[in-house]
Amino acid sequence: MSLVRSQTERGVATLTLDSPSNRNALSTALIEELLAALAAAEADGTVRVVVLSHTGPVFCSGADLKETAAAFGTGKPPINRLGEVLTAIWEGRKPVVARVAGPARAGGLGLIAAADLAVCTLDATFAFSEVRIGVIPAVISATVLPRLSPRAAAELFLTGDTFDGARAAEVGLVTAAVDAASLDAAVAGYVAALVRGAPGALAGTRQLLRRRKSDTFRDDVAELTELSVQYFGSSEGVEGILAFREKRDPNWIPDGA
């Protein structure tokens, strides 16, 4: 039975964690299927946006602790592969939107933070619960720390306290928190906006958001100017400007979008 379901429609690949019996825990099997699904979406030229969703009441409970306990002494717990998933989401060319309709813990928060945009319900709960079982949120800090202020990160990492969707939005873990009835519409709104962006420009903007600045302001501006000129002269830039002047959709927008 598949633990990650994939469906593509009108340029959107929806990857659904489908292991509700263990609260969509990050087992080795689920991680491998998620990696395969992400790779397939990345390779599919028709896919413009990836939505990460879930079945059951829990988005993701973190590492599969039953499998982790069984792996003591082998050096191969599921957490070994989590970094691969975070990297695939963080470094992919296509925007990722997380749809969070229920609680997330530990490693599940790493997935949410890796996504470009994340929408949760107001009553969803979150916790960096690692310290309470004697471990640290090491791997997920790669995606989580860029999202949180230092004070919020210190509080939430060190206390392990549970917080709700409104606080998650306040500290930057998610983009927006909405009531449950509005979740799908909010996700659809972000997706509709994203598919109107040019694929190459979206990929470039993702890199821009993650780039390291040059040593001096002057060098930084020079590098960014060169980058801007490159995109204005690209085939997408030429098409986008022409479409704007001709008051039509550019050729990269999927039919029906």
TrEMBL record:
Pfam families: ECH_1
InterPro entries: ClpP/crotonase-like_dom_sf (IPR029045), Enoyl-CoA_hydra/iso (IPR001753), Enoyl-CoA_hydra_C (IPR014748), Enoyl-CoA_Hydratase/Isomerase (IPR051683)
SUPFAM superfamilies cross-referenced by the UniProt entry: ClpP/crotonase
CDD domains: crotonase-like
Coiled coil: none
Similarity comment: Belongs to the enoyl-CoA hydratase/isomerase family.
Protein name: Enoyl-CoA hydratase-related protein
Source organism: Dactylosporangium fulvum
Organism taxonomic ancestry: Bacteria, Bacillati, Actinomycetota, Actinomycetes, Micromonosporales
